[in-house]
Specification:
Layout lengths: L12 H6 E3 L7 E4 L3 E5 L9 E7 L2 E5 L4 E3 L4 E10 L2 E9 L9 H63 L7
Antiparallel strand pairs: 1-2, 2-3, 3-4, 4-5, 6-7, 7-8
Amino acid sequence: MGRKGGPGADFGSGFAQAVQRAPPEEAGLYRFGSALLHIYNALRQVKKSLEVYCLEQGEYSFLSDNPVWLPDIGLAIGCERGVYQGIEREWLYWYDQGGQRYLTPEERTAEAARLATEAAQQAAEAERRAEQAERRVAEAQQQILKEAAARRAVEAQLQALRHRLQEQGIDPGA
């Protein structure tokens, strides 16, 4: 979506079906179902940029939470300072039931890139460790071969000494 919509506008098409635009004389007002009224104007300086009212017994009462849980659509709406399409200011965002803000498309892309970089680094580290392990195995095999050759040489020398002792009439086993 374009810059005009803000980060909340990119949440998903299912959300757009749940939101009804207020009449033109109430510019900036959105209704979610019939019980909630939201006023959002990022340029406000005296009042909060986001106000949410709940219709109870024919009267709207102000909900001061930020974000505000909207049970009818299973989301919370709130505003906070952030960067969207290179613009830093207060933006309207969507949140899950636990109060965790949903990422904007830019943030999701950056997070995916970060995770991909992290995975590549982990793969490179695993490859480096595997190469080190292979070198250690090869070195250990070489050491085993050297020790086996040394043992054979010692056994050959021992056999030669036994044979010389036997030639001189000495029993090497006694």
